[in-house]
């Protein structure tokens, strides 16, 4: 039976059948990708975050499904669908780390960010070198935000007293009272990671490239390239403003 989804009753019937298919595929056929879709259904359609949390957790623990590990990590981080509404950072990191070990780039990004921060060091010990490893793995797996964070780290350097700051750019004053750098300032590496992040669609990285070319920071000075990346970043900004969010039932697998 095909559905035209032209009225409310057809939409309701379609969603009910979809839920039956997901439950059968997950619980009877034991397909982890379908279990993840069931979690997405419970989260996005039913808004039952507690049940979604249980599905993601089981799918991560029982089937090592990386995307579910990321989702239950995020749930724990936010306290979403959990008894502890304030979140459990230790559990969040546990699942992000597992997801990263299973090659999920989002898990690697968040595991790295947790390890880089001193704010939550009481629950998860700060480990900058390991955090950088997670971010580099995420960047290698084409996560633009991870590449952008890495570029910012090398613009300013990371010492024992400072934290990872997402508001980085090549115009930032990178002086520090501490000379004990865990990650030293390196504009060539900063340029390399900015270039990668820009290629992956991060408009802020493209803006940084424009400034780097304009100043000759980490790369040979070029007014032409400075203008090129400035124009590109502005075009990206316009595209973001025009973009509209869309719901996709397959997002859990394809994203």
Write the layout of secondary structure elements.
Blueprint (H helix, E strand, L loop, with lengths): L7 H21 L3 H13 L4 H15 L2 H13 L10 H13 L3 H12 L11 H13 L3 H13 L1 E2 L21 E3 L3 H13 L3 H13 L7 H20 L8 H4 L1
Antiparallel strand pairs: 1-2
Structure notes:
It is globular, with a radius of gyration of 21 Å. It has twelve helices and two strands. The protein has a two-stranded antiparallel ribbon. 40% of the residues are buried. The model is unreliable at 164-178 and 247-255 (pLDDT under 50). Helices cover 64% and strands 2% of the residues. By secondary structure, it is mostly helical. The longest helix is centred in the N-terminal third of the chain and has 21 residues, at 8-28. It has helices spanning 8-28, 32-44, 49-63, 66-78, 89-101, 105-116, 128-140, 144-156, 187-199, 203-215, 223-242, 251-254, and strands at 158-159, 181-183.
Order of helices and strands: HHHHHHHHEEHHHH
Shape: globular
Largest sheet: 2 strands, antiparallel
Count of beta strands: 2
Number of helices: 12
Through-space gap between termini: 28 Å
Strand order of the largest sheet: 1-2
**Fraction of residues in H or I helices:** 55-70%
Q: What's the gyration radius in Å?
A: 21 Å
Strand content: under 5%
What do the pLDDT scores average to? 87
The structure class reads: mainly alpha
Low-confidence stretches: 164-178, 247-255
